[in-house]
Known about the structure:
The protein is built from seven helices and two strands; from the N terminus they run H-H-H-H-H-E-H-H-E. By secondary structure, the chain is mostly helical. It has two domains: 8-93, no CATH class; 94-165. It has a two-stranded parallel sheet with strand order 1-2. Helix 1 packs across helix 3 (62-75), helix 1 crosses helix 4 (77-91) and helix 6 (133-143) crosses helix 7.
Amino acid sequence: MSDLKPLHIINVFIEPWFRQEIIDTVLEDFSKYPENLRKELVSKLKNEVKVSGFRNPLTAPKRLLAKEIEKLFEKNPHFLGIILRAWMNIFDKNSSTIEKALTSLNFQTSDQADGYPNALNAFEFGWPEGINYQKVIETVREHDENLEMSDDQIVLYSILKTGFLPGEKEA
């Protein structure tokens, strides 16, 4: 387990504009989440996000709320876990397409990838040899030409689905 990296290491692979997009997407409409996920998300936001001038951060303007969420997104692996689970839930309708594509590229799935129960021991390094972002994107799009996901969304979903970060396996 000590070789595993904490959940917030994902920030190394995410551009600031995409991090903001993830947060905005998660905050867009809570009604799309299953009840248990929605309750957990609301609870985490209320208990951990502090927006100056607001007792309940969910009543703050979205831009202020998003700004405070971004601070936690970068530093708090436990908080990040719920944000990423909510984000993945939005794209789970594409799960089978992405799983088929990843399987065809010889990806394996980490034991941690199912919900990331331990935010401090979440990711492993090691994509299959010869695989890069572009190859993942191309293969996923070959499996579904009409997929409504951006290239960045495909790559992040792939990382989260497998539990493996790009790069070589550590010895």
